[in-house]
Give the backbone structure.
Amino acid sequence: MENQALTGRQASPSVAGYRWWSLTVILLATFMAILDVFVVNVSIPDIKKGLSSTDGQVEWVVTSYTIAYAVLLVTGGRLGDYWGRKRMFLWGMTGFTVASALCGMAPSAELLIAARVLQGMSAAMMIPQVLSTIQVHFTGRERGIALGIYGGVIGLASVAGQVIGGFVLEWNIAGLGWRNVFFINIPFGIISIVGSMIVLKESRSDSPFVKLDIIGLSSITVGLLLLIYPLISGRESGWPWWTYASLALAALVISLGLAYERHVKKKGRVPFIQLSLFQYPAFTRGLLVTLAYYSGNAGLYFVLVLFLQQGLGLSPLASGLTFLPLGIGFAVSSMLAQKLVKAFSEKVVYWGAILMLVSDLALIGLLYESGEHLSKTLLYLLMLLVGAGQGVIAPPLLQTILFRIRQQDSGAASGILTTMTQISQALGIAILGGVFYTLADHHGYVTAFRDALWVLLALGTAVLIGLMNLIRLHK
């Protein structure tokens, strides 16, 4: 994918005076966008009941946002380079706020899904401007600090989504229930819009505008929908012939799309996907590890909420707080990851994967032994260990994937990697959610969660094997 234009004119003295206020405003928007990937998870049982929706529909409520966000990220970056980063940020933030209101007012699951797509599209318009703005207005040590804060905000939002969602549902302001999960975005969105109008300065790329590869974008989007739709909706339909036809057609459409991308490159134009990056074995294999890692994480977060609320009968707040140990483990270990790599070599990521696997196995064993009487203390401890394992892996994995990429290709590579993480999350929710709902219908929630963990264990094993292969390439 094309470089998301991390270049631009040098900030003027007046811009420099506002840069930290600018960072505060754009990071508020970042927090909201990432929060909305996860805040809905804890609300799923309430949404399903309130809208009388099916299992497949509530899965789409989560994945529709992620897919729209993923496929338009790079396009949002390019538009910001050409039309102005402040302008695109304001459009995206305004769209996101309006879409949040539409989500909260949705009278049906179908309209909620449509509003979530609009939310994801809006997030894809504003989030690329955040990194671009940091790159333009910060240099040297301050840029490193700003990027570190940006990474911390993303990590915090990922965990806070579950907890904040639990608190919002517990308070039940004005008796609006799950709708408050979306309405809470509105005041923060307005603050971010007004703040952006005051403190953000416009910037654009000096490079000429590059024509968007609409056919490449469309083929990848359609291929993903053809892949994910039967995975989510096939179970409720009894897996008719069209589900298998859709999966086969997905492979065909994506293959044709990639062939078209090669044609675009030969013609001297800029393709949606920069296929030359796949000549680097570490990049290609690293994306496969990313697929297993992030799909497993997102799938776990989704089915764990269902198990806690529908299987153990916990309140939304109690289930949200169960993610707190996981978030603490992730935050601490991810901050220590680089020091651990320096002290013990890159092989420390193996122990992160092993810690995840051991924790998953221990949880499976506890479920066999205790069932719905599972000790909450032991569950919290295992979530802490899972989070610690995830955190040890994430930073070194991303650095290893991008290590041999040329500087001029770093933006395009980062775009592919970021998009892959979002696509992986959608696939993880579709696959583990499908396994969970299928088993829950016939064998109950304990068995459903336990057997979904076996799928997670297989993904964790793939992560470990992939990491071993990747580290060997990196030497």
Q: What stands out?
A: The chain has a mean pLDDT of 85.
